[in-house]
Design brief:
By secondary structure, the protein is mostly beta strands. The protein has one domain: Ubiquitin-like (UB roll), CATH 3.10.20.30. It has one helix and five strands; from the N terminus they run E-E-H-E-E-E. It has a five-stranded mixed beta sheet, with no helix packed on it. A hairpin with a 2-residue loop joins strand 1 and strand 2. The longest helix is centred in the N-terminal third of the chain and has 7 residues. The protein is globular. The termini are far apart. This is Thiamine biosynthesis protein ThiS. It comes from Bilophila wadsworthia (strain 3_1_6).
Length: 66
């Protein structure tokens, strides 16, 4: 299935969850904010949020510094 992640088409397996995608991208779920189809996804639900063909995701990662 095809989803859009930060403006780029990405292919995911059927049944993949948001957590699967985050880990596949090498990101830390504790440092990510996700918007799915214009709605914020609570971090505690990443593992149970099944991705659907055509989803549009924006992933924002917290970065420390000063």
């Amino acid at each position: 299935m095809n989803i859009t992640v930060n403006g780029e088409i990405t292919v995911c397996n059927e049944g993949a969850t948001l957590l699967d995608l985050i880990l596949r991208l090498g990101l830390s779920p504790e440092k990510i904010v996700v918007e799915r189809n214009r709605d914020i996804v609570p971090a505690g639900t990443f593992a149970e949020t099944a991705l659907q063909d055509g989803d549009t995701l924006e992933l924002l990662q917290f970065v420390g510094g000063g």
